Amino acid sequence: MADWLTPDAWQAVRLSLKVSLWAVAASLPLGVFVAHALARWRFPGHGLLNGLVHLPLVLPPVVTGYLLLLAFGRRGWVGQWLDQVGIVFAFRWTGAALAAAVMAFPLMVRAIRLSIEAVDPKLEQAASTLGAPAPWVFLTVTLPLILPGILAGAILAFAKAMGEFGATITFVSNIPGQTQTLPSAIYAFLQVPGGEAAAARLVVIAIVIAMGALFLSEGLSCMIARRIRGA
Amino acid sequence: MHDRPPHPGGVMLSVALRHAFPGFTLDAAFEAPAGLTALFGQSGSGKTTIVNAVAGLLRPQSGRVTVGDTVLTDSARGIFLPPHRRGIGYVFQEARLFPHLTVRQNLLYGHWFTGRGRPSDLPRVVEMLGIGPLLPRRPAALSGGERQRVALGRAILSHPRMLLMDEPLAALDQARKDEILPYLERLRDHVGLPILYVSHSPAEVARLATTVVLVDKGRVTTAGPVAAMLSDPATAPLLGLSETGALLTARVEAQEADGLTRLATPSGPLFLPRIAAPVGTALRLRILAQDVMIATAPPQGISALNVIPARVRDLTPTGDGVLVRLEAGGQVILSRITARSAAALRLEPGLPVHAVLKAVSVAPGTIGVSAG
């Protein structure tokens, strides 16, 4: 099994899993917060926030990657400040995770927002009349009811992060062991003569991971929904 | 009745609200003593809006709401307590139980936050509402009546200073209503919790209310003690002419062998089909005006059991007839008859008459238990 894949390819698979898991884990709390704000609150700039969140979905990924480079590169607007406190995104796996998180964010927010909008605000009102302050209403009523949606959003974002290519390669390049994720590795293998076989194996792995994530998501959603509706 | 102070026990709830919606303006004010205050009116008259403003779910453009000594809203002083700090229990028309929590967790939800009361209150309330077997279940597995009782228990266990109920029985059939009404009477009489109760059912109002507030097109048209409101020919028809009927207070005196219950009323004895209540129980009966006949001489050879000597106080023309107000032993009985009958009997204020009432005309579901 070990020699079925070259060490470089294995490295790419492991890196992709790490990058995607971190991208989802780190952006999930913000995703829930933004989805809740978009679904429940009316505030000036509501439309602007909605547009910003969705921008990576409609922009060419290369543009998003370039904007990330401008902002989070070592001499970028934000990057130069972060550099001073020791946080570096440029040409590191953390940068790949940032690019994946930004690209996956719209899908995550959309899924979670839909599930929040499906929660009857009357239940939240009832909770407030029983003495629960707003943050507790969210934690004890809204959050448990939107768990399936959060899960769906997280898995969708994970799958998107696994497949992210354009923004990643633009922002953090294609450095084996640092920023060469699974799609970048497939691309690299296809650039050299005789690399098709290794590329095909990675494609199989990509399909298996994606399908596995979907099955997991379905299974967990069913379980949670049964627990909520169940007798 | 009219020369009594409006609220002998003091004002418990005071509401004054102004709020303009597109196409609808709420401009309502009323005061109510302790007990159950019924907000009565057509759908869309603004009852739910008033209740939501009392709960703090709606912030009125201007107004003032006080419960007891506590100011909940006072726009002039910029006071607006958020719902979770009002201590007001709200039983919604749809129970609004939390679907992801068990019945027990639903019941204790308010207790987690208010910290008031003791968990030992749970068994008492569970027993009063008869929901013990439901505790481990989830709301999805409950019937409509069960859900509404759990919602009631959940509101009570948050230990509110007051309870709001927005047509809590509207979604239920008559059998389920009869199942819950006694609990509401117990709540009013034994727990002593002030209740603001939205209804468009005259039967519910007659059975439960201490005070009635009539709401029409966003305004309070009249308000007063229930017996006075229901026996006043000027206000009674506002509850619907076919539902017009005065309240009589009565006490169970004996259960007779032939299946009748003998009641003592200030107007004399009354015989009704068996009422399942122990001797001595105080009742309130609504006698529908259309079920009361008037005779100028003691009737003979008729099947009606209840013939009450009375005196005509006044006659009020209504759309299709005459509403006659009778006085019997200090209580008022209303009778609705045709103008032709009124003329044929030469009815006029002061005339001694007999009010005739069929024993079966008082529907068992409309008989309420009253305090004292």
What can you see in these coordinates?
The complex is a heterodimer of chains A (about 230) and B (about 375). Helix content of chain A is about 80%, strand content about 0%. Chain A has about 230 residues and is an all-alpha fold. Chain A has a single domain, classed as MetI-like (MetI-like fold, Orthogonal Bundle). In chain A, α1 (about 5-40) packs parallel to α5 (about 95-115), α6 packs antiparallel against α7 and α7 runs antiparallel to α10 (about 195-230). The relative contact order of chain A is 0.15. The mean pLDDT of chain A is about 90. Chain B has 2 domains: about 15-235, 3-Layer(aba) Sandwich (Rossmann fold); about 245-370, OB fold (Dihydrolipoamide Acetyltransferase, E2P), CATH 2.40.50. Chain B contains 8 helices and 21 strands. Chain B has helices spanning about 45-55, 105-115, 120-130, 145-155, 175-190, 200-210, 225-230, 340-345; strands at about 15-20, 25-30, 35-40, 60-65, 70-75, 80, 90, 160-165, 195-200, 210-215, 220-225, 245-255, 260-265, 270-275, 280-290, 290-295, 305-320, 320-330, 330-335, 350-355, 370. In chain B, the strands form 4 sheets. Chain B has a 6-stranded mixed β-sheet, with helices on both faces. The chains are: A mainly alpha (about 230), B alpha+beta (about 375). At the A-B interface, α6, α7 and α10 of A face β7 and α2 of B.
